[in-house]
Amino acid sequence: MEQPITFQVLAPSTERLDRFLARELSLSRTQVARLVAEGAVQVNHERARASRCLSRGDLLTVELRESGGKRPRRIAAYDLPLDVIYEDDHLLVLDKPAGLVVHPAPGHWDDTLLNALAARGTRLAAQDAGRPGIVHRLDKDTSGLMVLAKTDAAHQKLARDLTRRRVERVYAALSWGHVKGPIDIAAAIARHPNDRKRMAVLATGRMARTRVWPVARFDLCDLVRVVLATGRTHQIRVHLSHVGHPVVGDPVYGGGGHRRAAASQRQRALALVRVTPRQALHATELGFNHPVTGEILRFRADWPRDLRRALATAGDDPDLLDRTNVLEYLGFA
Questions:
Q1: Which letter does DSSP use for residue 120 in this model?
Q2: What confidence score (pLDDT) does residue 25 get?
Q3: pLDDT, tens digit (0-9, with 9 covering 90-100), for 18-57
Q4: Which residues share a beta bridge with 189?
Q5: Closest CA to 301 of 146, 153, 158, 168
Q6: Which of the 8 DSSP states describes residue 111?
Q7: Would you identify the CATH topology of the domain 5-62?
Q8: pLDDT greater than 50 at residue 106
Q9: Number of neighbouring beta carbons within 10 Å of residue 85
Q10: DSSP one-letter string for 68-119
Q11: Predicted pLDDT at 68
Q12: Taking the model in full, what pTM does it have?
């Protein structure tokens, strides 16, 4: 067992303790429940119940213990080539393609990223039996860089660094309209009250912060650089939509962005929609300290092939289809 994790609640209030810890520490609800039952979770130096709601200033102490020797649920192999960027005995970094779910869930029990890693023979941290090795996730239709842990020690360290905002995650996106200079978006996010599959900006949600810079301005949209300060579900998509610049191609939060175009540009906007196969959002940069050696690791993944036609159409530049290092060419830095 490593040294306990201690941190303080900054939000005015939170949801239940078990849900709060599952999200903040990238653990399963089952694992959090076990830690609470074993007395490994304290609030203000006292054992706490899983149903307790937290308040600003509460001090949490969590001992990340082993999983009790329980055998992980077997994850079936799914033969799918993966673009591995970096790998050693402790972790693995890959460029996840769009359309791939990260871990088994209803509707995708045997065709996920974890199934593909099982087929590859990659052994991942078994701390969370249902989601072994997962430090952070990407939406099914968001592509880009992810890090996965191979050992429990690496998983605990990376999860702790993520909670303490020591992991840098940078995204590239096409967003409708024009962003006027760098903007900071600070808006709480929660489940939509009428649609459990959607998120929404709600005062009762958990505070989320996103930083957005315009990189390249096109007639109808911008290429933007997005940095996460927090990691809520659908955060970038919800926040960009909230400030009036939804992600191009987003079927959930797009809000008919193409209809905002002037009448004279409506056909061009529709053309852009037709060549954008999914939300134009890509995790392009990832940086963190190696959980064992402490070495600073930084990775980049260029704009994906399936969104090249969307970028070329937005920029009215066919040369963008085949240019190498297209994000660097456009000034994404």
A1: H
A2: 74
A3: 888 877 776 777 778 888 888 889 999 889 888 888 888 8
A4: 201, 206
A5: 146
A6: S
A7: 3.10.290
A8: yes
A9: 16
A10: TTPPPPP--------EEEEE-SSEEEEEEPTT--SS-BTTBSSSSHHHHHHH
A11: 40
A12: 0.78
Q: How many residues are present in the chain?
A: 333
83-164 domain in CATH 1.25.40.10? no
Two structure tokens written together for 278: 């999914």
How does DSSP assign 182-229, residue by residue?
Answer: -EEEE--EEEETTEEEEEEE-TTSB--EEEEEEEEE-SSEEEEEEEES
pLDDT at 132 over 50: yes
Share of the chain above pLDDT 90, in %: 63
- Chain segment 174-202, per-residue pLDDT in tens: 999 999 989 999 999 998 988 878 999 99
* Placement of tokens 């080539």 in the chain: 81
Domains 83-164 and 169-286+307-329 alike in fold: yes
Task: Give the strands of the sheet with 46-47, arranged side by side.
Answer: 5-8, 59-62, 41-43, 46-47
The first and second tokens of residue 218, run together, are 């096109």
Annotation: CATH topology of 169-286+307-329: Pseudouridine synthase (3.30.2350)
Mean pLDDT of 127-145: 85
Sign, CA dihedral 255-259-261-262, equals negative
Domain boundaries, the chain: 5-62, 83-164, 169-286+307-329
Instruction: State residue 69's pLDDT score.
Output: 37
The strand pair at 209-217 and 221-228 is best described as antiparallel
Question: Could you give the residue numbers annotated as active site?
Answer: 139
- Give the gyration radius of the chain's Cα atoms: 21
Query: Per the structure block, which two tokens stand in for 65?
Result: 């213990």
The torsion of the CA quartet 246, 220, 182, 308, rounded to 10 degrees, works out to: 80
Using CA atoms, how far apart are residues 179 and 69, in angstroms rounded to an integer? 51
User: Range with the lowest mean pLDDT among 10-14, 91-95, 216-220, 276-280?
Assistant: 10-14
CB 146 within 8 Å of CB 96? yes
Secondary structure tally for the chain: helices H, strands E: 8, 17
pLDDT for position 36: 87
Residues in Cβ contact with 10 at an 8 Å cutoff, skipping those fewer than 6 apart: 56, 207
pLDDT of residue 176: 96
Instruction: Write down the residue that tokens 């300290």 correspond to.
Output: 289
